[in-house]
Design a protein that fits this description.
With about 130 residues, this protein is mainly α. It has 5 helices and no strands. About 10% of the residues have low confidence.
């Protein structure tokens, strides 16, 4: 019985250590990604209506993400620089929507923002 108790304690301890070292979700990144997906993927299919409808929210989410604390599992300097670029890009998209830019221009701008997002989500993570 004592061996079982010790074994269970070891399993519980190992599980709690794993839970503490698991990478935490970056909520601001998740929120931005939700809006990016809802606007970029239709744009890929030449449907720019969702982008036009949600451009202010896209920009707002980019600002919130930029202002948030960079998690320890990301390279801070690179991440901060790219988030600033992303925020500027989202502002450019918002301006283009307000200026009644054509679909081709909007598709190009949202694609550039999408590429920046993937750099942050991928290359900015530490090994």
């Amino acid at each position: 019985m004592k061996k079982i108790t010790i074994l269970l304690a070891m399993v519980f301890f190992a599980g709690s250590i794993f839970a503490q070292t698991e990478k935490k979700v970056w909520p601001e990144m998740k929120e931005f990604h939700t809006i990016m997906a809802a606007t970029f993927h239709p744009a890929e299919e030449n449907d720019l209506k969702p982008l036009r409808a949600q451009v202010a929210e896209l920009y707002r989410a980019s600002k919130v993400w930029f202002a948030s604390e960079v998690p320890a599992n990301f390279k801070k300097a690179e991440t901060t620089e790219l988030l600033q670029q992303l925020m500027v890009q989202c502002n450019d998209i918002w301006s283009a929507v307000n200026d009644k830019a054509d679909d081709a221009k909007l598709k190009n701008l949202i694609t550039m923002a999408h590429d920046i997002f993937h750099k942050v989500a991928g290359t900015c993570k530490k090994d």
